[in-house]
């Protein structure tokens, strides 16, 4: 403790970033801790200060690298089509993704390795997924179908049924895992029994246009749905609209998210801004949140509602303070196409994003808003992670993002 000059807790936090950044090569070969990873540790990191002097005979970095930890943890390859939806599972240790390649896949969030076999959706593209809070159920929506899966076995629950008359754009699961809600371009919201896969009651009807998003409150009593010009809040038991619908929006709503306590709704609007609404009163909260340079495509709240994350066609992911309406740090940059889906881990430390570039990426929230340089220039850092498992590939790589090996 006295020798290193700062508390063990600080060093441990740096150690977590070290493991997350270099998990893939380390799992291939433990020797990479010393022969590769330690060489490319950021120069201002605690790990570098403490351990580089203890291993003076390793290779020395002459060119490249970063001074601080990067925001990007992993780039996960495996899908052969656009990644349309992503979510965290098991408290952030696993990631679930759905794609136009007709599969749902589960990944280790630390190493990027796939877990088990893909869940194959024979019907069509996977447009949306949702995870129950206990991690036992996965719901997926494809072009006309809603499927419910046992996340532990990978087996479908119930027989596949035609859920809607048009594309299913969004699904959500109640926190107790008993109900699934789906929204479709057929202008309806439908509720399903997550244990049997059967439809419960009649569809919720009232939107004048196709639905783009649905969400359910943590207590399972409220459902929020949006179409381009209207947002409705529903009582899931009575199936009645709660309060007055948010109608006549001057600007089309492209996506929404509901806070865990069901009090706030955040909307992505067609003018590239975000707005927060009080779901109980129907009034806006604060000022528009500005920063994206193209259409906002996806949103998510943190578990405590103090932060929100957004993805856009501008190929960036942004983090927001919902209390002030201000962006937190610089945008997460690295995807090569528009962002399709975003999520925040339950502990609020990591963001996951899916994109039309067929990749899933994870981002360190703390690093992302404290280290501007690492976020602004991810391509330099990613070059440093082009390490072969046997250590034979040169460490001093150069070139563009598209010519690197990424983890």
Q: Overview of this structure, please?
A:
It is a single chain. The protein is globular, with a radius of gyration of 22 Å. The strands form 7 sheets. Strands 22, 23, 24, 25 and 26 form a 5-stranded antiparallel sheet that branches. Strands 1-29-28-27 form a 4-stranded antiparallel sheet. Strands 2-3-4-5 form a 4-stranded antiparallel sheet, with no helix packed on it. Helices cover 13% and strands 35% of the residues. It has 2 domains: 3-54, no CATH class; 75-406, 7 Propeller (Methylamine Dehydrogenase, Chain H). With 407 residues, it is mainly β.
Please tell me how large the radius of gyration is.
22 Å
- State the CATH superfamily name of the largest domain: YVTN repeat-like/Quinoprotein amine dehydrogenase
- Largest sheet entry: 5 strands, antiparallel
Task: Estimate the strand proportion.
Answer: 35-45%
Structural class: mainly beta
Care to count the β-strands? 29
The residue-averaged pLDDT reads 80
CATH topology of the largest domain: Methylamine Dehydrogenase, Chain H
Protein name: WD40 repeat-like protein
WD repeats: 76-117, 161-202, 204-244, 246-287, 289-330, 332-373
Keywords: Repeat, WD repeat
Pfam families: WD40
Q: What is the strand and helix layout of this fold?
A:
Blueprint: H1 8-28, H2 32-37, H3 46-51, E1 72-76, E2 83-89, E3 94-99, E4 103-108, E5 119-120, E6 128-131, E7 137-141, E8 146-150, E9 156-157, E10 168-173, E11 179-184, E12 188-193, E13 204-205, E14 213-216, E15 222-227, E16 230-235, E17 246-247, E18 253-258, E19 264-269, E20 273-278, E21 284-290, E22 296-301, E23 307-312, E24 316-321, E25 326-327, E26 332-333, E27 339-344, E28 350-355, E29 360-364, H4 365-370, H5 372-376, H6 378-384
Antiparallel strand pairs: 1-29, 2-3, 3-4, 4-5, 6-7, 7-8, 8-9, 10-11, 11-12, 12-13, 14-15, 15-16, 16-17, 18-19, 19-20, 20-21, 22-23, 23-24, 24-25, 24-26, 27-28, 28-29
